[in-house]
Each structure stands twice: as C-alpha cells, then as structure tokens.
C-alpha cells in the first residue's frame, strides 16, 4: 500500500475570491497559510452592516452580482456551499451634467424619461445605431475586419456617431470595467466585442442576474471557516526570495521570514510585482506583471439621492453620472449603484454606492468610504495575460486573480482554483481533476 504524499506547505498572498478559493481547495490536501495585508479579509467581497434609522441593513459595496451563464464556477461553488441567492436587476442609465441629458434602459418609457429625447434626431439615431452595432460588430469580428484595432478606432472606422459612443457604448463599458472613457477607447476591439457577446450585451434580452442573499460575505466566510488561525490578517508580505533547496522564502513587514514549498500570488498584479521586485523575482515575470496595471477608485456608501439621475423615472441599477468640466473635458468616471434595486432592499430606505463622486455627498448621509483598485486593460495587458500562463509554477510561484481574465469574480475564482489544482488541490464539482504540476519540496 502506497504511503500518502507528504503535505506541502503552501503560502497564499491575498484573501479575495482568488486567495480564499485557492486556500479552501488546497486545505483538503495541503498545509495552507493565507496572508492578508488589510485588517479585513475578502478584498472586493465586502459586506457592510449599516444602521439605517434604527433598522440594520447588510449591503455589498464591492462584488454584487453574478449570472449562471458567465459565472459557472461561482454558481457551482455556491451550490456546494449552500449559499443562497436571489434575482436582481441590472438596468443601466446615463445622466449628463445634472440631468441635461438622461435616459434609462429599463423599458421604452424610461428610454424617453426625458421627453425631449422623443424629438431629438441624434438620440433617435443613437437608438438605431445600437441595433446596427450589435449586428455589425459580430460580422466584422467573424470576417477578420477588426485586426488589432482598439474599440475607439473601430467605432470611428465604421462611422458610429459621437452620441452613440458618448451616451451609450463607452459609458456602459466604462461602468463595467470602472475605467475612464479615454482608456476605455483604447480597449482592444476584439476582446471588447467578445466580452459583450459572451455577456449577452449585444442582445435585447439580458441574462438573469442574481445577488447573494444577505451579502457576499456569506460565501466568503464559509470558504475561510476551516482555516482558523492560518488566516494572517494585517500581515503584508514585502519580499520573495528563492532558497538553494528550491523552497520559497517570504518576508513580512516586520522582517519575519518563513519558508514554504510554494506560493500563490492571489493579489493584484501590481502588488505581486512589488513583492517580487523586492527580492528574487525573475525579470520576465516582473515584465509581464508590469503590463497589467491597476487604478484606485473611491467608493462611498450613502443615502444622498442627488447622486442619481435628476428624473426618478430615469433611475436604474447602474447609473453613469457624467459631468463636463469648464475646459470641456469629461470628469473622472462617476457611477452610482442603486443598492435597493440591486439587492432587494426596502425602497423606503434608499441606499447608494457611488464610485468616484464628482463632489462630496452630504456628510450626514454617508455610511462609509473605501478604495477598491480595478485592472486597466489595453493590448499590452491582454498580451501579458497570454504570457502569464507560461510562468505558472516557475520557481514554485503561481499567480491568480481577476486580472488574469476580464477582472470579474468568476475570473478570480477560476484562476484561484486553477492554481490550487496545479498544487494538488481539490475542486469537488470538477469531474476531471488535472494532473498537479511538479513542485520541489524541500527537506525538513
């Protein structure tokens, strides 16, 4: 009878969906330690409890929604952990300069919530262009027309109007990726269109979206429940070094160094780069990570309705609030999530999450403030993603994170599980377990 394989000592850096999932999967077969630099575990999984005039309400300010088609692993995880969810709404609205121009995509009535839209040739033409884009972009993709064009170049090449670009497509994409307009226009057209098709954004009937009942922390707490004191909060890993025997040496902010058989960098690409640059990270790895950049976004949870469209009929789940500066330049992306609609919260207690507010909300109406960083995509970033797969396992280093895909929860989960499987982890709902990659295990 063969003796069981020795348990490997694995470090995971980052406690968001990628790190938590990797730790949960590996905990069945390996000895795992999870490091988190913040005082709270979860990353973008962030559920907040607020006292709303004496009524306790739990609300998410990071990850909020998912659907069955585009989040297969997340749905399987929720089924396995018995995490309850409920239907939600993912409508979109745009408001320009305090309501000078507004529309909302819930139905025909909300599209014309601003009556002037019915008599605006440019607005009516924009509606026609939505149908044209939905069909034309797929033909151009399949016909090889896109090449290496950015979405901005493609829209100009196909002569889509400025109104269509400024009031529909680019705001919607900017809201999805939490990215300013100018950077959104630099998004590779091929990847942009592929994403829109996969998420049924080119169809009139959207997928059914869902939200975790009671807040997303309900799944995250279950992932970390079995780790106990092996979750090290307020512990920032500052340097990585290689030992002569092939093991990994990690040093924290206090100068403490610990040896591991392998490490999973389940943090942001720029954070992984900082750690590797402070030690023995390879030049190739650092070059790849440097091409996937992050941008911080300020997030405020509040009850101030002035951060929503001027017309109540134009309120949607996602509200793109655009302001034009005195010099004619557009403001930083500002987006307000209507949490009552997104998480089925009592409409008598309005709750909003605003990303990068263009002015300060009434302090008496603010419940909290956070900063969440989001990956910024261009051709260099997508090229780097292709290269990262060839680096997995080198020097017993693995990478996971939403940045390895399109920046969403499913991407983070998938990459975390893939890293875990490569190290011998277990994913209960997968019928075929991939063969674990070889790893150098140092002698005790």
TrEMBL record:
The Amine oxidase domain, residue ranges: 17-308
Record-given protein name: NADH-ubiquinone oxidoreductase subunit 6
GO terms of molecular function: oxidoreductase activity
Matches recorded under PANTHER family: AMINE OXIDASE DOMAIN-CONTAINING PROTEIN (PTHR42923:SF17), PROTOPORPHYRINOGEN OXIDASE (PTHR42923)
Keywords on record: Ubiquinone
Record lineage: Bacteria, Pseudomonadati, Pseudomonadota, Alphaproteobacteria, Hyphomicrobiales
Native species: Ahrensia marina
InterPro entries: Amino_oxidase, FAD/NAD-bd_sf, Zeta_carotene_desat/Oxidored
